[in-house]
Design a protein that fits this description.
With about 100 residues, the protein is of the alpha/beta class. About 35% of the residues lie in helices and about 10% in strands. The protein has one domain: STAS domain (Transcription Regulator spoIIAA, 2-Layer Sandwich).
Length: about 100
Amino acid sequence: MTPSLPEQSKDQPVIKLPPRLDSACAHALREIIAHSPAAVLDGTDVTYLGGLCLQVLLASARPIVNPSEKLSDAFVLFGASMPPAATGINTSELMT
């Protein structure tokens, strides 16, 4: 499964991340992020994060809103930190 195209919100687009972020979707993830420079990433449905997609997410320095528990755990297991801008952002606030 590949990341979905950005949804339009009040202030900025939101890219909904797929449940499985593995090497098969790393290139598509990079392309979608590159073509949506103002988008935030919605991690609600993520159940798996692989190393290549972790690198794409870190390199993008995009805020990740609503990170799933599995996504947060994966960042910890890799010894990485969520982008600082992700703290305290909720997509429900963006969508109103």
